[in-house]
Amino acid sequence: HLRHRCRLITKDTKKYAAKEKYSKITSDDYDKKNKLFGALVLMHAERDLSFAEAIKLRIRQRGKAKGNEQRLMTTRLKKAYKTAQNLVEITKNEKQWITRAQYLAYAKIVHAEYLLFGKQVKTKNNVLITQELAVALAACTFLRDQDILPADIIDLLNTRYEYTLTQYAPNITSATDVHNFVSQTIEAARGANDELAVLLFNNEYTAK
User: Fold this and answer.
1) pTM recorded for the entire structure
2) CB 80 within 8 A of CB 117
3) Which of 129, 121, 39, 44 is nearest to 79 (CA)?
């Protein structure tokens, strides 16, 4: 079990909150003790994101939320977002650019999901949502083209979030518009020193 491998099991359940080790993982732990800490934190974020996705699907099929479903989805997405941000923090010194890029891209997707469906605001931050998704999609597509990530999964991811871009980005009505928007956005992100965008361009990415 991964928690055993990372020595994060708390045996004294009476004072679990005080002794629980998972929330205290640091970048130093990741750097010097065990790289599996990154995988563990990623799994926790994915668990909450998957739970929220299941609720979202039920609401969509039914046409409306029942009981506390909306609150549960919001809570899980907020947890996933915070955990993904923690993942970015503890892996900040990761020297393998491919690993770092995957963590950063995942965190951007989770952030967009939180802004879309978790954060309760009157007006969604369309600019930030589409920026996060565009840079993440560019990264995932690049890693797919390098045979690092599986094509079938990335193609599904692209299909899903390219549709989101048509909903929330301005003046997008075709696949060509999506492609151009992603290219322009990642160029702008590099200019703004976005870590993922800079990392991609430093490793032979070109905005086509």
Assistant:
1) 0.88
2) no
3) 44
